[in-house]
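Narrative summary of target 7.
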Amino acid sequence: CAKSMEMTGEIQPGWIEAFSAHKESLHRSSHLNHKDLDGDGIHVSVLGALPLLRSPIAMRPHYTEAWAQQVLEKNLIAEQEFEKETGIEIPDHIVRDSHHGCEMGCRLLSLMSKASKEQDHPIFVPIRNGKCIEVTKHHLGGLVYENFHVVP
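Modeled conformation, tokenized:
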């Protein structure tokens, strides 16, 4: 949520540090390990994490076209990371259109979340007023898959 708040200008540089725990305050214990504290990637056991979904989603309600270019740039970065780490190509038209509406954002997120559980850069799903997304979880062979779609 903090990353999407940065895009809207609701928080200014330095504000997020005021609400996060500084590394000097964090210590290895039974709750936090080296991987949690290394500052790289998304790990569910870090201090302050709230693991509601396994997928790397960033969403911002009340989306407007003013954020479209930033959303596209962030999704292109996420796509590059995904393709480099998994070797799986995402169709360019899905990424190119991911900033125009919730439907393509959900489609992109569903594709990427099935193949990668270590995605550092989230997919931004633009949620306009009046739109609602639904997540369905599927359990298959000990793995959990999340499917995202727009509720009609």
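The beta strands are 57-60, 123-126, 133-140, 143-150.
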